[in-house]
Specification:
single chain; alpha/beta; Rossmann fold; 5-stranded parallel sheet; two-stranded antiparallel sheet; 8 helices; globular
Amino acid sequence: MSRRLAALPAMLLVLLLVSVPTACTQGSDDAGDDAGISLPSFPSIELRLDSVVMVGDSITEGSATVLNDTFAAAGFTDVVVDGDASRRIEVGTGAGGGPVSGLRTMLRLIAEGAAPDVWVIELGTNDIGAYTAEEYRGLIVQVLDLLPATVPVVWVNTFRPDQPDDTVVFNGLLTDQLTARGHAAIADWYTAATAPDQDILLGDNLHPNERGQVALAMLVVDALNRLPSAAPATG
């Protein structure tokens, strides 16, 4: 069944980042406002996507409500958003209340029957600075190898202000691996978060504020919109 995904050219994203404060609750003065975040409407195109699973860290966890609402507005009828603070790609068993790694989370979801039309991955931020370039590449490949080669993937790239060099290395390797895989697109959080006049991050300069949550969701939609429209494989 065809679903309509909002088209989001770069200029519309710029307009969104300028205008979204009027649609968000900001600060303690608005704490009692039930209006919440209102999502913009954009022109749309037809894509045959009904189900999506997104796995990420605290950036996903903190943006889960906006992401769920955005996926629903884009026409997805089966949505799973699984974010956990401090989640890393490979490290983490959940012991002692700690986060379960992204790989273990994906394996659990697959074992439970998850077979979405598209996967969205937002992992890597908590791994930046801990590995060599080849180890980063290996982590990315492990994630991609879990997924059927014909299933589209969107991966949100990383931004770590305290590890600028490793962030660039990881993001470059991520782009290379997704290009080699095909059926994939980058949601470019890095460029949005490093813009000189950005106003999308909390005081920690890492996690998105309310404006940033909307920007993140729109970047994911933009990446979904850029996925190659390959015909389904036939036996």
